[in-house]
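Hi R.,

Here's the chain you asked about this morning:
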Amino acid sequence: MEPAPGPQEKYHLITRNLQEVLGEDKLMGILKERELKIYWGTATTGKPHVAYFVPMSKIADFLKAGCEVTILFADLHAYLDNMKAPWELLELRTRYYENMIKAMLESIGVPLEKLRFVRGTDYQLSKEYTLDVYRLSSMVTQHDAKKAGAEVVKQVEHPLLSGLLYPGLQALDEEYLKVDAQFGGVDQRKIFTFAEKYLPSLGYAKRIHLMNPMVPGLTGSKMSSSEEDSKIDLLDRKEDVKKKLKKAFCEPGNVENNSVLSFIKHVLFPLKSEFVVLREEKWGGNKTYTVYEALEKDFADQVVHPGDLKNSVEVALNKLLDPIREKFNSPELKKLSSTAYPNAAKAKPAEKGTKNSEPENVDPSRLDIRVGKVISVEKHPDADSLYVEKIDVGEPEPRTVVSGLVQFVPREQLQDRLVVLLCNLKPQKMRGVESQGMVLCASSVGEPRQVEPLDPPAGCCAGERVYVEGYEDGEPDAELKPKKKVFEKLQADFRISEDCVAQWKQKNFLTKLGSISCKSLKGGSIS
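And the predicted structure, written out as tokens:
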């Protein structure tokens, strides 16, 4: 039997690979006297993805350090966050999260009996907790509440009051779960400092806060449940994992925002204390790294090729996903998955010749719409009314797009601007140049015709997903089939609101930073 780790070793296990710790002295003080009590919470919204292995890996570290760990399924938070989980789906999504998180923990060898699992609604609807919510709301300004939730709560043009309550509830959870520390991503930092400021005002102790770095998504930005291109789903098939990793941002020698390296550092290395790069003998054969920094240096020096790195991660990742796939292959969990996330369950097209088949599901989640940045604009060599643009949409190479905007938008106004691009139309030649997407624009209703490219919110990055409010969890079609006319059916309900916001059936087009809009064409159409 191994001897119990001392305070210094416990401190190392608890804090390794973290980006920031608030309350280091207090943490060491507790470890010298007793075991640390800590909790990690997750709002039961979109489906968990492989980046969730990062907190799972840290939970394994906490247990090795002897911590008493609580996992909170924050079901009420999921509803308060702009109704990301509708009330009628709340119970189903919470059950899905419980099963999925436990399956993830089991796949990395974490003993479930050492963990305490709690639902938010188990205590957040009590008289005492509710009274504390009211007490807190009498102290917190609207400015502080909005600022605290800015990185976590979904930002929309007309925010609901519920989103302002969210940070206060998360602060109170620290007291009601009777913990010393809260663990989360660095995107939670503003909520953590909010808790440190306001809990003492209620007579409660200030807690320790431990923060993980945010793992880059496959496109180089944050990995997100609502951005399909940025993530690998925990139930993705092996061929889908291969396809997504193949497209992942992993530039030779570039270690910044590299999702593949980041996953190795924060998940695979802590679990195994080593990582094996698989290579053919002619390229030097397999190489085992026992120190992450050595792997990062070899990649920076281009000793390790991105293709070999991706292939090696694919093998290691599938070993983690196999037991999860097997567990969720049961009829009971298949049904739970489809009922908890109905928009993600695509209706299968009817077989040719079949009568009385279900109509094909046509909702806006089938559209692959992304933020793009225009890199270059040239006149079409054979058509005076067309531009040929190179547009970055977060892929290894920019897309070539042909747009009929010459008479509406000066070339210099397109250069370097952010646009909204429909990316899964079938490529087609326009006067001899293949166009790989469509720039979405607002158009005036009357004459003379006016056209304005749609504008993403300031601060967006190329490749960020654009989705319709309430349809963020669906998976876009790989390619829209022209005969099915999916885009045309949906486009019939595209409109510009009186506030110049792009909408489908009065639901806003959004990115994680807010609404898609145009400059002035109120009541116009979108094409």
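DSSP finds 16 helices and 23 strands in the chain.

Let me know if you need anything else.
M.
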